[in-house]
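Board work, copied verbatim: NAD(P)/FAD-dependent oxidoreductase
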Amino acid sequence: MSAREYDVIVVGAGPVGENVADRAVQGGLSAVLVEAELVGGECSYWACMPSKALLRSGAALRAAQAVDGAKQAITGTLDVAAVLARRDRMVHDWNDDSQVTWVDKAGIDLVRGHGALAGEKRVRVTADDGAVTDLVARHAVVVCTGSAALLPDIPGLRAIQPWTSREATAAQTAPESLAILGGGVVATEMATAYASFGTRVTVLARSGLLTNEEPFAGELVAASLRDLGADVRTGVTISSARRDGESPARLELSDGTTLEVEEVLVATGRVPRTGDLGLETVGLEPGSWLDVDDTLLVRGTDWLYAAGDVNHRALLTHQGKYQARAAGDVIAARANGAPVQDAPWGAHVATADHAAVPQVTFTDPEVASVGLTAARAEKAGIRTRVIDYDLSWVAGASEWSDDYRGQARAVVDEDRGVLVGVTFVGPSVAELLHSATIAIVGEVPLHRLWHAVPSYPTVSEVWLRFLETYGRDSASH
Ligand SMILES: Cc1cc2nc3c(=O)[nH]c(=O)nc-3n(C[C@H](O)[C@H](O)[C@H](O)COP(=O)(O)OP(=O)(O)OC[C@H]3O[C@@H](n4cnc5c(N)ncnc54)[C@H](O)[C@@H]3O)c2cc1C
Ligand SMILES: NC(=O)c1ccc[n+]([C@@H]2O[C@H](COP(=O)([O-])OP(=O)(O)OC[C@H]3O[C@@H](n4cnc5c(N)ncnc54)[C@H](O)[C@@H]3O)[C@@H](O)[C@H]2O)c1
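↓ predict structure ↓
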């Protein structure tokens, strides 16, 4: 059977693959998506969307409980079955019909099955029933296969069939008890969700919580998890695990204690989904993250691109979709012989991956950060000044809640007079973050930020407090 030919073949129809194909088609090219599971990927069905749905109801309840007058109206507790049903609606009951309709309308072809490289510009797709479709690309193959949960090599751990993020986000009931291994984003979000369901949660974090963030972020999240009833243990990990039949899992911990729990969630990071991708047919190492340049081209090739989690630049949907726009557009530009804008901040490069990656962790309080932490900025050799501000001191915070707890930090590059990092920790700070992203990407000088006046009384007045704390030269003259 002869191979079907397209300008661009995209392997993996998660949020990133969908966007690469869309941009390529908008650039006048033909594109095909290859998908082994559900169109929409991990993000739509087992990650961003279901996890946020599991968190939102508890956050809404606690927000109302923090305001006198509203709290008196609350007489019940979280309805866990209703939360899970809302999550089911959010993931369309794990049915991808609506996304397939979008792909079709966007003018993108779809081939279902497992895709693997079969030499330069060639992809072989094997469907569940064993049927094989061979594809050949005129211009580019783009790998957007994402990542999967990493299971550390701990004796007995695999045998007890622990939950990963997939089982935690797709659960149909809340277990009575849950141990969570890890202190990162998945661990803290799922600890928040399950603790609010009434599950007895134990977090086992070998270092602190959210150690990639400013130190106060993990401290505030740990305190609030404890308020929710979770047992947060740091400096400890699982040494071995065992489960007999249907009985609880028995965990031996590194501090010599034991823990018996109904379920164990392993949230210790990700591995690339490249193990069975045929990388060896093009001289690359199976199972490795794909190293790309700023146009998302895999180094050492002129036809293979990788975008999203699989290139390990920033494991976030929005950042992967940003890369996808650059990749789809640069493939079209190169195919059409149009100029390539690959200078920093050009249309065809993912410069923000290095300078301004925004991330919100939807714990309670939320952690919203962009750019460098103070420690990272210092390590990068930037002459910094750190501005700290207690978010509860702004008028908007006291209006928002009767017990507002939050903290904010801005990191200034003293030589350039611009911000290089901002972190907000507090209730509902997620929506504040984009202001900081714009300030960093736009390299807005601090003296100009004085003219960006935040509305009174909103939490965004923290921007004015940052500036007042930093000081204004003209005040002393
Ligand atoms: C619990 C959890 C919560 C998260 N929450 C957020 C959040 O709130 N916000 C955020 O920005 N990020 C979040 N993330 C991260 C986010 O899910 C990922 O960054 C995002 O899904 C990456 O998109 P992607 O398209 O690169 O990969 P994926 O979404 O993983 O999609 C890859 C697709 O490729 C397919 N595929 C893989 N191999 C093959 C193959 N060989 N052939 C054919 N198809 C293949 C897969 O089936 C899948 O559909 C979360 C992650 C987790 C685990
Ligand atoms: N809201 C969001 O944007 C969101 C939500 C969930 C996940 N994500 C993304 O998904 C990715 C994966 O999240 P994650 O939480 O799995 O990874 P992570 O890298 O955030 O955290 C991993 C945690 O596991 C610990 N760990 C690693 N190996 C271990 C071991 N062998 N034993 C014990 N502990 C170990 C680390 O110390 C760390 O605390 C992240 O990069 C994150 O950005 C984003």
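The chain has 15 helices and 21 strands.
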